[in-house]
């Protein structure tokens, strides 16, 4: 039984060529010899429009590392809130209606959902799981409806209540809920009123992509190492949740006082605001490098003295560990965290860097100055400590072996029914 190959369906709104951790999971299971099929949408994240390479030759994106990629149409997310809502709705409706037809004739041992926002992406998985009589695993990476309220997207109590009932409907029909953070358990349990036993609520954190675990010293043509300045690098989505106003305040407060450059790599809904703000305020110690492929990140990280993670302050974000934290730990670089809750606890427990409360630009400037003042050996020790913590707690081979065991356990349970 351990050598039996599995037929796995992965349902995810976001997938290659978008830079997502789910790409890693699909590639690894496919390379192990399992038959993997991915049900996804059209690539448009984070720019908000369908990738030109995909539009020109969609047939080039029908297979990934041996896995079959099945795509359904969706409305691109655009740059406005209405576009984002239409994007969410169009995927789960298209995947629920067209997905079963496009997957006709296929049987699966497990259906795995990459449940970043929106949680509605789990609905087509439940539909297909019911049709195919396959267990459904939902990897809960975001909390709904709490996140909607936290970011101010929805404030109406009646609407939040309706979303809560939908979340309860989804959770109660899943076979396993995999939770990325210990802080998620209490929130998720509130919505599990029927079928989810304690052993089906599983702690399953994120890992760092393979690019950050290479023994080869990476280099970059996008940024050069400069020993004369202390380089702080932020990599990832440039959204409202990352609190760039506070980051820019910190950067501006250090102009002319400490030799620091801030490098921001990524794209998102705050990109234009950042460019305009830096120009208006004439801040010259911040570099915007734009979006680049994941393979470029290790080389960029190697040019940095510290890596920055930030999230706005609210009770939902305090329970969340941004996926970049694992990548930062794996890279062996010191971390600066303007963040509260579980993510701050991880950074501090790992001895991997310095943290300050969310939203406090003055405090971020202070811990940045403190880290810059340490000698290189002290900062190196932080990076080594963070790397060791990563290997002990977030090793990808260990996590994926655990997931495979869960798939097999569910398959056995199904066969015995």
Structural features, described:
The protein is an alpha/beta fold and 417 residues long. It folds into two domains: 7-207 and 395-416, 3-Layer(aba) Sandwich (Rossmann fold); 211-393, Glycogen Phosphorylase B (Rossmann fold). It is 42% helix and 16% strand. The protein has 15 helices and 14 strands. The strands form two sheets. It has an eight-stranded mixed sheet with strand order 3-4-2-1-5-6-7-8, with helices on both faces. Helix 8 crosses helix 13 (361-373). The mean pLDDT is 91.
Keywords:
alpha/beta; Rossmann fold; 2 domains; eight-stranded mixed β-sheet; six-stranded parallel β-sheet; 16% strand
Quick synopsis:
This protein has 417 residues and is α/β, with parallel strands linked by helices.
> What is the helix tally?
15
The percent range for strand residues is 15-25%
What is the CATH third-level topology name of the largest domain? Rossmann fold
Cα distance, first to last residue?
Answer: 17 Å
- The CATH level-2 architecture of the largest domain is identified as 3-Layer(aba) Sandwich
Question: Structural class, from secondary structure content?
Answer: alpha/beta
Could you list the spans in which at least 5 consecutive residues all have pLDDT below 50?
Answer: none
Tally of extended strands?
Answer: 14
How many domains? Answer: 2
Strand arrangement within the widest β-sheet reads 3-4-2-1-5-6-7-8
State the share of residues found in helices, binned by percent: 40-55%
Mean pLDDT: 91
Give a short account of the largest sheet.
8 strands, mixed
Identify the CATH homologous superfamily of the largest domain: Glycogen Phosphorylase B
